[in-house]
C-alpha cells in the first residue's frame, strides 16, 4: 500500500485525531470528577440514613415519637431537604419533614398511589435484609442510594425490637450536603484544558511544518512529528487529568477510557494523514456502481447482524448475569476470564464412584462432537444430494418432475413435527426402526442409551432434512455446464466416470463450495434438531456448542459467559471459513 | 336548492356534527389495557367471556383487549418486550420464571401495595405462597395445576389408595411383550417425579435456600421408581408425554400420573376416571405431594395504567370470574369460594383436583430453579437407563447445581 | 411407434432400471416420515402414532404395525384447523412475508452477486467474506439485541417490514454466494458483445445475464421463500396482533406447553407445506433451463 502523507493531510489528521482523543479524555475527566463528588456525598448520605434509622429503631415507629426524632434530626442536619418514615405493614406514612406533606397530606396517613415506588423500595430493602441474614444467597445491598442532578436520595430499613424490618426511612439531600464534602470548583474545567492542549499541539506542528524547510521536503519525518506531538499531547493531558482525580477506582477507569480514545485518535490521524482517507474517497468514487450494487445488502446486515455482534463481543468480556443487569458494563469487566474458563475446561475425564467417566459437559468434548456432527452431516447431505441431482439430470429419465417434488418434501414440511416423528421412530420399544430390525431378525437397539447410537439418531434426522437443499443446488449448478463439453468428451472416448471427474466436478465447484461452506456453518449451529431429537442425551454427550450456549444464557442466566461461548463458536467458524477460502480460492471464482 | 335551504341544511349538519363530537370530547376516553395470554380452545373462550364481562361492567372507564400468544414463545416475548416498555399491561404466566423476572428488573410490578386482607383471604394459601418471592407478592394466582392419577375405568375400575395396591394392580395389567403397562408416566422427568420425592420429604432447596438434590430422601424416592421399573417391571421404557398419551389412548396403559392438560388429549372412546395420587407405603404412608404450578396474572412494570390493571386482576380472581373459568374453561381456580358453588362441587374433575391440591407443594419460583432442571433431568435419564445408581447421579447433579449457583454469585 | 423404437425405448428403460431403483429407495426413505404425518392428520386423533402390536405378533402384524396408514380416516383435524381459528389468514400473512422476503432478498442478492462477480473493487473480498461471517454468530442468542434494534430503535415492531428485513438478512448471504458463483460461469463475451451493440449496463444485467442465471435465481428464490415461511420464534416475538401472526406461529398453538395436539399440528403442517410444493413445481422449469437450453457458441 503506497502512503502519501502531505503536510495538509497530516495537519488535518492531527487535528481530527486530537479532537477524538482529547475529547474522550476530557469527557472522562469531567465525568470522573462528577462521580467523585457524588461518591463522597453518597458515602455521607449513607451514614446519615443509618443514623436516622438507628434513632428510629430506638424510639419506635409511633407517629409522635417518630415525628420528634425527625424534627431533632432535621435540626442537626440542615442539608437534608426531606425525611420520610414509612410503616411497611401498615402501608402508611408515619412522619415526614418533606415540604409537600402538610395540611391534608400531613403525616400520619396512608400512602398514595404515587408513593408506591417508595413502598416497593422499602419492601425490597426488607427482603434484602432477610435474605442476607439467612445467608446462602447472593449478597444484596441493604441501603439504596440514588444520585441525581441536584439531589441525592437514600433509603434505609428500620427494624423493630425483634429485628424484623417494619419500616423504612427516605432522605433527600441537596447535592454537596453532608459533613465531609470536598470543596467544589477551583480546578480548571477539563474541556478548557483539552482545548488548550489541542491548540498547543496543532500550533507546534504547523510551526514546524511551515517553518522548517527540511521537514517540508520529508513527509515521512513530518508524519513522525505528527504522531509524536499527538502522543505527547494525549500523555500530558491524561496525566494532568488523572492527577486531579482523587479516587483511585475512578482514576483507573479514566485512564482506560483515555487509552481507548487515544487509540481511536491515533488511528484517525494515521488514516487521514497518511493519505489512506483520500485514497478511499477516490476509490469510492471510481467504483461507484459496484458499491451501489453491493451496499444495500451490506447495510441491512450491518444494522441487524453486526450491532448485536459487537454487543455480544462487549458482553463477552464481562460477567453479566441476571443479578447485576442494572450495573453498567464497565463495572462488570473481567477481561479474558470467561475465555480462560471456557478454554481451560480440559477435564475430559471425571472420577465418579462408578469409575472413570467422560465428562460430557467439557468444552472439548462438545467441540469435538460438534465437528464430527458437522462433517458427517455435510458429507451425507452433499453426497446424497449430488447423487440424486446427477441421476435426475439425465436426459429422458422418466418421471423426473414427480421425483423432484417428492424429494423436496423434507425441506418443505415444518421440521418441528418431522424431527419429532424421527425421534419416535427410534423409540426402543414402540419405534418403527426397531420393528424393522426385528422383522429382519435382529435385536432391538436402545438408541438413546449410548452416545454413538444417539448420534446416529440425530444424524439420520438431520441428513434426511438437509439433502433436498443440496440436491436443489446441485440441480441448479448442473445446468450451467454446456452440453457440448460432454459431447466433445464422448466423441473423444471418455468414460462416464472420467467425464464426471474432469467436467462435472470442476464446473460444480463454484456453486457447491459456497453451499458447503454455508451448510457447514448452519449445521455447526443447528440448534433445533439436537434440542428436539436427542435433547443432548445421553448425559449431555450429544450437545453441540450452540445448545450449550443457549443453556448457559437461559437456564444459568450467565449472559457474559454465554456471549463468550458464542464468540468462541464464531472464532472456530471464522477460522474454518478463512481456511476453506484459502484452499478453494472461492472468492476468486473463475 | 334555494339559498335558504342551503343555509338550513348546513346549519343542521353543523349542529349534528357538534352534537356528535361534543359528548365524545366531554367524556374521557376509557383507559385501554392490553392482556397477553397463552390460552387456546375452551380455556380461551372462557377467558374471553370473562374479559367481556369486565369490559361491560367497566364500560367507558376501562377497555381490555387480549392477545393470544403460543405458549412456547411467551417467555421469550415477555423477556424481550416488557423491559423495553413495548409489552402488555397485564400478562398471564406460570410462576416458574417469576424469580428470574424480578431479578432482571423492570418486568413485573410488586403487588403488596395494592393487596388488602380481603383479597389475600380469597386464595388458597399455597397458591398465594407460590406467587410470593422474597416476601413480596408479585402476581395474583389465577389457577393451579397439579398431577393426579388418571385411570382407564375398563382396565382399572377402582383406583388404588396406596403404592402397594398400585404395584399389585399394575403387575396384573402389564405385558411387556405386547407393550401393555399397568402404570405409565414420564418418570424420568423431574417434574413428574416430584410427587414421589416430596412424599419422602425430599426436595430441591433446603430451608436455607441451598440445593439439597443429593439428600437421602431424594435418593430413596428414585430407588423406589427404579424398583417399579426394574424389579416390578410395570413401567414402559423411554417415556415421553407423546408416548404416554399414545399408550393411554390405545388402551394400553391402565394408570397414568398426569395433570389437567392430559384430559384434553384423551380419546373420546376411553372411559377414564380421576383419583388422588396414592400414599406411599415405603415412606410411612405419607401422601404423594405433587408440585403445584400456579398460573398467575401479573402487572407489567412499565405499564402506564397500573391501577386499572389491578382492577382487572381483582376481577379475574374473584368468584364469579373463577366460576366461568372453572366450568367452561376447565381450569381449577385458586379462588377458594368458588368450590362451594354447587355446580363446581358436583364436577368430578374439578373437585378431585381441589382435593389433590390440599397436599400439593408450590414449585420453587427462585431464579436458581432453572439451573436445576437440566442436571436433574440428566441425572434421572442416566439413572433410568441404568448407567448410574441414584446416589451417584444425584451427587453429580448436586455438585453441578452448586457450581452453577456459585458462578452466579462471583463478584 | 415402430417396433425398433419401442424396443429401444424399453431397452433404455431397462438399462435405467438400477438407477430408478436407487431413486425409489431414496423416495421411500423420504416419504416414510411424511406418510406418518399424513397418518396422524387423517386419524382424527391427537396422539403421535406408535407401533401397536398384538400379543405374539406374526410377521404380517409387524409389517402392518410399521405401515403408516390410519385405522380410521377422518378429515376432522383438517376441518378444525381451518375453521376454528383464522388459519387461512395466517397462511396469507406467511405468503406476504415470505413473498416479499423472496423479492427483496433475490433482488438485493443478485445485484450484489453481480457486482462481486464482474467488478474488481477494493473491499471485494472482504465484502464477500463478511456475508459469510454474518452467518457465523449463533442466532439463537440474538433475540433480545434484535428486538432492541428493530422494535425500540427502529420502531418496526408488529410490522411486515421488520420481519422481512430480518428474514432477508438471514437469506441474503447464501443467495449472494450462490448467484455470484453462477454469474462466474456465464462467459463475459456475451455482455461485452451486447455492450458493443449499444446496450446499457443495466440492460445487460437485466436482459442478458439474469435470464441466463435462471437456475440460480430459482434456487435462491426457493431458499429465501422457505427462510421466511418456516420461521417461528422471531415472528412470534415481533408480532403483537393475532391477525398478523404467520402460519408457524399459528401452528404452534396446537403443541403449546403440556397440552399437545398432534392431530391438528399434523393437519396444519400438511396445509402449510402445500404452497411450498406448488412454488417448487412452478420454479422447476426455471431450475432446468440455462446455458444448456440456449444456443451458446464459444
Task: Reconstruct the topology from this structure.
The complex is a heterotrimer of chains A (590), B (411) and C (298).
Chain A lengths: L6 H53 L3 H14 L3 E8 L4 E5 L12 E2 L5 H19 L9 E4 L3 E9 L5 E10 L15 H22 L1 H5 L1 H25 L4 H26 L2 H11 L1 H29 L20 H7 L5 E4 L2 E4 L4 H31 L6 H8 L1 H4 L2 H11 L6 H8 L11 H28 L4 H9 L4 H29 L2 H8 L10 H10 L4 H26 L6
Helix pairs in contact in A: 1-2, 1-4, 1-6, 1-7, 4-6, 6-7, 9-21, 11-16, 11-18, 14-16, 14-19, 16-18, 16-19, 18-21, 20-21
Chain B lengths: L2 H24 L4 E7 L3 H17 L4 E7 L2 H11 L8 E5 L3 H7 L12 H6 L2 H6 L1 E2 L2 E2 L2 E6 L2 E5 L10 H11 L7 E4 L5 H10 L16 H16 L9 H9 L3 E6 L1 H4 L8 E4 L3 E2 L5 E2 L3 E9 L6 H11 L2 H9 L14 H5 L1 H10 L3 E2 L7 H15 L5 H20 L2
Parallel strand pairs in B: 1-2, 1-3, 8-9, 13-14
Antiparallel strand pairs in B: 3-13, 4-5, 6-13, 7-9, 7-10, 11-12
Chain C lengths: L2 H13 L1 H26 L16 H7 L10 H8 L3 H32 L5 H13 L6 H11 L6 H25 L3 H9 L4 H12 L1 H16 L3 H6 L8 H6 L9 H26 L11
Describe the structure.
The complex is a heterotrimer of chains A (590), B (411) and C (298). Chain A has 590 residues and is of the alpha+beta class. Chain A has helices at residues 7-59, 63-76, 116-134, 190-211, 213-217, 219-243, 248-273, 276-286, 288-316, 337-343, 363-393, 400-407, 409-412, 415-425, 432-439, 451-478, 483-491, 496-524, 527-534, 545-554, 559-584; strands at 80-87, 92-96, 109-110, 144-147, 151-159, 165-174, 349-352, 355-358. In chain A, α1 crosses α2 (63-76). Chain A is flat. Residues 177-184 of chain A have low confidence and may be disordered. Chain B has 411 residues and is an alpha/beta fold. In chain B, 46% of the residues lie in helices and 15% in strands. Chain B has helices at residues 3-26, 41-57, 71-81, 98-104, 117-122, 125-130, 163-173, 190-199, 216-231, 241-249, 260-263, 306-316, 319-327, 342-346, 348-357, 370-384, 390-409; strands spanning 31-37, 62-68, 90-94, 132-133, 136-137, 140-145, 148-152, 181-184, 253-258, 272-275, 279-280, 286-287, 291-299, 361-362. In chain B, the strands form 4 sheets. In chain B, strands 1, 2, 3, 6, 13 and 14 form a 6-stranded mixed sheet that branches. The model of chain B has no long low-confidence stretch (mean pLDDT 89). Chain C contains 14 helices and no strands. The longest helix of chain C has 32 residues, at 87-118.
Amino acid at each position: 500500500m503506497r502512503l502519501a502523507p502531505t503536510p495538509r493531510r497530516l495537519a488535518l489528521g492531527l487535528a481530527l485525531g486530537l479532537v477524538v482523543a482529547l475529547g474522550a479524555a476530557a469527557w472522562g475527566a469531567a465525568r470522573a470528577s462528577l462521580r467523585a463528588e457524588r461518591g463522597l456525598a453518597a458515602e455521607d448520605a449513607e451514614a446519615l440514613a443509618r443514623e436516622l434509622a438507628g434513632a428510629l429503631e430506638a424510639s419506635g415507629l409511633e407517629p409522635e415519637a417518630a415525628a420528634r426524632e425527625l424534627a431533632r434530626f432535621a435540626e442537626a442536619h440542615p442539608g437534608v431537604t426531606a425525611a420520610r418514615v414509612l410503616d411497611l405493614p401498615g402501608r402508611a406514612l408515619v412522619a415526614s419533614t418533606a415540604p409537600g406533606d402538610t395540611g391534608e397530606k400531613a403525616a400520619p396517613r396512608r400512602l398514595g398511589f404515587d408513593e408506591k415506588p417508595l413502598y416497593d423500595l422499602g419492601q425490597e430493602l426488607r427482603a434484602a435484609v432477610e435474605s442476607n441474614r439467612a445467608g446462602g444467597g447472593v449478597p444484596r445491598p441493604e441501603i439504596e442510594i440514588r444520585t441525581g442532578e441536584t439531589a441525592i436520595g437514600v433509603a434505609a430499613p428500620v427494624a423493630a425490637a425483634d429485628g424484623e424490618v417494619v419500616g423504612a426511612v427516605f432522605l433527600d439531600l441537596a447535592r454537596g450536603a453532608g459533613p465531609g464534602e470536598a470543596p467544589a470548583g477551583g480546578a480548571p474545567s477539563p474541556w478548557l484544558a483539552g482545548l488548550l492542549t489541542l491548540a498547543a499541539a496543532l500550533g507546534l506542528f504547523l510551526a514546524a511544518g511551515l517553518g522548517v524547510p527540511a521537514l517540508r521536503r520529508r513527509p515521512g519525518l513530518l508524519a513522525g512529528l505528527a504522531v509524536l506531538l499527538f502522543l505527547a499531547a494525549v500523555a500530558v493531558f491524561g496525566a494532568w487529568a488523572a492527577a486531579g482525580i482523587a479516587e483511585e477506582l475512578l482514576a483507573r477507569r479514566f485512564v482506560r477510557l483515555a487509552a481507548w480514545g487515544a487509540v481511536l485518535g491515533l488511528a484517525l490521524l494515521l488514516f487521514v494523514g497518511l493519505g489512506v482517507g483520500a485514497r478511499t474517497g477516490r476509490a469510492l468514487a471510481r467504483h461507484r456502481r459496484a458499491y451501489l450494487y453491493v451496499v444495500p445488502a451490506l447495510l441491512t446486515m450491518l444494522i441487524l447482524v453486526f450491532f448485536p455482534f459487537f454487543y455480544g463481543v462487549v458482553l463477552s468480556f464481562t460477567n453479566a448475569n441476571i443479578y447485576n443487569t442494572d450495573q453498567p458494563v464497565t463495572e462488570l469487566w473481567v477481561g479474558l476470564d470467561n475465555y480462560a474458563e471456557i478454554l481451560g475446561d480440559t477435564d475430559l475425564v471425571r472420577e465418579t464412584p462408578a469409575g472413570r467417566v467422560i465428562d460430557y459437559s467439557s468444552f472439548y468434548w462438545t467441540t469435538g462432537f460438534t465437528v464430527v456432527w458437522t462433517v458427517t452431516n455435510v458429507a451425507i447431505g452433499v453426497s446424497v444430494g449430488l447423487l440424486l441431482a446427477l441421476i435426475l439430470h439425465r436426459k429422458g429419465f422418466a418421471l423426473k418432475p414427480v421425483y423432484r417434488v417428492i424429494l423436496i418434501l423434507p425441506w418443505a414440511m415444518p421440521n418441528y413435527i418431522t424431527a419429532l416423528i424421527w425421534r419416535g421412530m427410534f423409540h426402543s420399544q414402540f419405534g418403527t426402526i426397531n420393528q424393522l430390525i426385528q422383522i429382519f431378525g435382529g435385536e432391538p437397539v436402545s438408541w438413546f442409551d449410548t452416545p454413538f447410537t444417539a448420534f446416529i439418531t440425530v444424524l439420520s434426522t438431520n441428513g434426511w432434512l438437509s439433502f433436498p437443499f443440496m440436491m436443489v443446488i446441485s440441480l441448479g449448478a448442473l445446468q450451467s455446464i454446456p452440453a457440448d463439453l460432454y459431447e466433445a468428451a464422448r466423441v473423444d472416448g471418455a468414460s462416464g466416470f472420467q467425464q464426471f471427474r474432469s467436467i462435472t466436478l470442476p464446473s460444480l465447484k463454484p456453486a457447491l463450495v459456497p453451499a458447503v461452506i454455508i451448510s457447514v456453518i448452519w449445521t455447526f449451529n443447528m440448534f433445533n434438531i439436537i434440542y428436539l431429537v436427542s435433547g443432548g442425551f445421553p448425559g449431555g454427550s450429544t450437545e453441540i456448542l450452540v445448545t450449550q450456549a443457549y443453556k448457559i444464557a437461559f437456564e444459568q442466566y450467565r449472559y457474559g459467559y454465554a456471549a463468550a461461548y458464542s464468540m468462541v463458536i464464531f472464532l472456530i467458524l471464522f477460522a474454518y471459513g478463512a481456511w476453506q477460502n484459502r484452499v478453494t480460492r472461492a472468492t476468486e471464482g473463475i | 336548492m334555494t339559498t335558504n335551504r342551503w343555509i338550513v341544511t348546513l346549519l343542521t349538519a353543523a349542529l349534528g356534527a357538534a352534537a356528535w363530537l361534543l359528548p365524545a370530547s366531554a367524556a374521557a376516553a376509557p383507559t385501554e389495557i392490553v392482556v397477553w395470554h397463552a390460552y387456546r380452545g375452551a380455556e380461551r373462550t372462557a377467558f374471553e367471556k370473562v374479559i367481556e364481562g369486565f369490559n361491560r361492567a367497566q364500560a367507558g372507564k376501562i377497555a381490555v383487549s387480549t392477545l393470544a400468544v403460543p405458549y412456547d414463545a411467551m417467555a421469550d416475548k415477555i423477556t424481550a418486550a416488557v423491559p423495553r416498555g413495548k409489552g402488555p399491561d397485564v400478562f398471564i404466566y406460570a410462576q416458574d420464571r417469576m424469580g428470574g423476572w424480578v431479578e432482571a428488573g423492570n418486568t413485573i410490578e410488586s403487588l403488596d401495595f395494592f393487596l388488602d386482607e380481603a383479597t389475600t383471604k380469597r386464595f388458597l394459601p399455597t397458591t398465594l405462597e407460590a406467587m410470593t418471592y422474597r416476601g413480596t407478592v408479585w402476581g395474583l394466582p389465577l389457577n393451579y395445576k397439579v398431577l393426579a392419577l388418571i385411570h382407564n375405568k375398563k382396565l382399572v375400575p377402582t383406583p388404588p389408595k396406596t403404592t402397594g395396591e398400585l404395584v399389585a394392580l399394575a403387575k396384573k395389567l402389564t405385558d411387556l411383550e405386547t407393550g401393555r403397562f399397568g402404570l405409565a408416566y414420564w418418570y424420568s422427568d423431574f417434574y413428574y417425579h416430584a410427587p414421589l420425592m416430596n412424599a419422602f420429604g425430599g426436595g430441591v432447596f433446603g430451608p436455607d435456600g441451598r440445593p439439597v438434590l443429593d439428600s437421602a430422601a431424594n435418593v430413596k424416592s428414585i430407588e423406589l421408581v427404579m424398583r417399579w421399573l426394574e424389579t416390578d417391571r410395570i413401567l414402559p421404557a423411554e417415556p415421553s408425554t407423546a408416548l404416554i398419551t399414545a399408550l393411554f389412548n390405545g388402551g394400553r396403559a391402565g394408570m397414568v400420573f398426569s395433570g389437567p392438560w392430559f384430559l384434553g388429549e384423551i380419546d373420546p372412546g376411553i372411559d377414564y376416571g380421576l383419583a388422588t395420587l396414592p400414599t406411599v407405603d415405603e415412606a410411612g404412608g405419607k401422601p404423594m405431594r405433587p408440585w403445584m404450578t400456579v398460573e398467575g396474572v401479573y402487572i407489567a412494570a412499565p405499564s402506564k395504567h397500573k391501577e386499572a390493571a389491578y382492577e382487572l386482576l381483582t376481577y379475574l380472581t374473584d368468584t364469579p370470574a373463577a366460576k366461568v373459568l372453572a366450568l367452561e374453561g376447565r381450569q381449577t381456580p385458586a379462588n377458594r369460594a368458588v368450590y362451594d358453588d354447587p355446580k363446581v362441587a358436583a364436577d368430578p374433575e374439578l373437585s378431585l383436583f381441589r382435593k389433590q391440591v390440599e397436599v400439593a407443594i408450590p414449585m420453587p419460583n427462585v431464579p436458581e430453579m432453572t439451573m436445576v432442571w437440566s442436571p436433574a433431568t440428566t441425572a434421572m435419564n442416566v439413572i433410568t437407563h441404568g448407567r448410574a445408581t441414584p446416589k451417584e447421579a444425584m451427587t453429580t447433579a448436586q455438585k453441578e447445581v452448586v457450581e452453577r449457583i456459585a458462578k452466579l454469585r462471583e463478584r | 411407434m415402430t417396433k425398433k423404437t419401442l424396443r429401444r425405448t424399453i431397452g433404455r428403460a431397462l438399462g435405467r432400471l438400477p438407477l430408478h431403483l436407487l431413486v425409489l429407495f431414496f423416495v421411500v426413505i423420504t416419504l416414510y416420515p411424511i406418510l406418518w404425518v399424513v397418518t396422524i392428520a387423517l386419524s382424527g386423533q391427537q396422539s403421535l402414532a406408535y407401533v401397536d402390536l398384538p400379543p405374539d405378533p406374526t410377521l404380517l402384524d409387524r409389517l402392518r404395525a410399521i405401515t403408516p396408514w390410519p385405522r380410521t380416516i377422518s378429515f376432522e383435524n383438517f376441518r378444525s384447523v381451518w375453521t376454528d381459528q383464522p388459519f387461512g389468514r395466517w397462511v396469507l400473512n406467511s405468503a406476504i412475508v415470505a413473498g416479499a422476503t423472496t423479492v427483496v432478498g433475490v433482488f438485493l442478492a443478485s445485484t450484489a452477486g453481480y457486482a462481486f462477480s464482474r467488478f474488481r473493487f477494493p473491499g471485494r473480498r472482504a465484502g464477500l467474506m463478511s456475508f459469510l461471517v454474518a452467518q457465523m454468530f449463533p442466532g439463537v442468542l440474538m433475540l433480545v439485541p434484535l428486538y432492541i434494534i428493530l422494535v425500540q430503535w427502529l420502531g418496526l415492531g408488529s410490522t411486515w417490514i421488520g420481519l422481512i428485513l430480518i428474514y432477508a438478512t438471514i437469506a441474503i448471504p447464501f443467495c449472494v454466494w450462490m448467484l455470484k458463483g453462477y454469474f462466474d460461469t456465464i462467459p463475459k463475451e456475451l455482455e461485452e458483445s451486447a455492450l458493443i451493440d449499444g446496450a446499457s449496463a443495466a440492460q445487460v444485467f437485466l436482459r442478458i445475464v439474469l435470464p441466463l442465471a435462471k437456475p440460480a435465481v430459482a434456487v435462491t428464490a426457493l431458499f429465501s421463500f422457505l427462510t421466511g415461511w418456516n420461521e417461528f420464534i422471531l415472528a412470534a416475538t415481533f408480532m403483537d396482533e393475532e391477525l398478523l401472526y404467520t402460519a408457524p406461529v399459528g401452528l404452534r398453538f396446537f403443541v403449546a406447553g403440556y397440552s399437545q395436539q398432534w392431530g391438528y399440528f399434523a393437519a396444519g403442517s400438511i396445509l402449510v407445506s402445500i404452497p411450498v410444493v406448488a412454488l417448487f413445481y412452478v420454479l422447476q422449469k426455471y431450475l432446468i433451463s440455462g446455458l444448456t437450453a440456449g444456443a451458446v457458441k464459444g
